[in-house]
Amino acid sequence: MKYLIWLVVLLAVVVWFQRAKKSMLAGSDSADAKAEPGMPQPKSSRSRRSSDGGAETMVQCAHCGIHFPVSEAVVHASGAHYCSEEHRRLASF
Length: 93
Ligand SMILES: [Zn+2]
Description:
By secondary structure, the chain is mainly alpha-helical. Helix content is 44%, strand content 11%. It is rod-shaped and about 85 Å long. 4% of the residues are buried. The mean pLDDT is 79. Residues 61, 63-64, 66, 82-84, 87 line the site of zinc ion.
């Protein structure tokens, strides 16, 4: 019965080692999947959330009221969002 406990412990250690090895190999391929400390992270991939599942923030054009992703927004000095440069210009005058 005592051996069974040690067998389970040994098995857990082996599984843990294999997992650590696998995650190390995967980490070299796709660094952005796991935020490893010390790894240089490109800031552009963090601000653009469209690729990693999170829905992009939608904003409304202050001129025509259309909804569109914030990455395409033309932001006025006052902080208002516009769907195009033309609508920003129309609103400012
Ligand atoms: Zn508009």
